[in-house]
Amino acid sequence: MVTTRASTAAPTPSPAGSALEIDPVSKARTITHMNKDHAADMSAILRHHARLSEAQAADAEMLDLDLATMTIRSAAGVQHVALDPPMGTWSDRRTRLADMTIEARAALGLPPPAEGGGAAAVAWYPPQGVGILSFTGVIWYFVSATLVLSGHARPGSGLWQFAKAIHFPGGPETYVWLVRFLLVPMIAIHVAEAVYMARSRLAPAQVPVVSTVWLLWVATTFFEGVTAWQRWDRLVLRKQKKA
């Protein structure tokens, strides 16, 4: 009788992400680092490798990484990006992530990541000081414009009484006329200020378009104006120069 004996040699582990080959501490550190400093790079990877649009790839956040797959959540949901070929060892992760970033940015026509890392994460800061007054004033103007255009600025209305209470020059009639007169210039000026913020500050900082941070900066700039640019230069730009 001939018998067959199974080999006692341990099977060669597949590079497809065996948990035994990945140190959980360094994995957590890598994911934290990617989310803190490389959100724009991950958005680029999603746009190139997962064929997402810029809007779909916004707010990229790494959820998991193994030897074969990178799992990223973005505005479009959770995406699983295959590492082709899979990494041979966990120590390859930095080189592979850097290579994927460079490849994605080149394909998208974006500048390569800065020496020593990708674009620093950009935070949003709410209006401060004079900016609060500017923001509140513009909000009030658009509330007034909405009431005027909807026919709610009549004698006896809240807006009418407000104009009387503050002794507006010329009375409520002049207040209503001025609100109508300023509408188009106000919209044009504030749209221009928001566009300038997006092009002169957000784009060079590689903030993904329509990401949460991008939307917050653009929206507050629309209502706040020049003081938002000044806040960016004071808080964000200064932080980047120190980094």
TrEMBL record:
It comes from Cryphonectria parasitica (strain ATCC 38755 / EP155). It holds the Pfam family DUF2470. It comes from the Eukaryota. The chain crosses the membrane at residues 132-153, 174-192, 212-232. Residues 1-20 are annotated as: Disordered. This is DUF2470 domain-containing protein. Residues 1-19 have a biased composition (Low complexity). The keyword Iron does not apply. Keywords: Membrane, Transmembrane, Transmembrane helix. InterPro entries: DUF2470 (IPR019595), Haem_oxidase_HugZ-like_sf (IPR037119). Residues 27-100 form the DUF2470 domain. The keyword Transcription does not apply. PANTHER family: MEMBRANE PROTEIN, PUTATIVE (AFU_ORTHOLOGUE AFUA_1G04315)-RELATED.
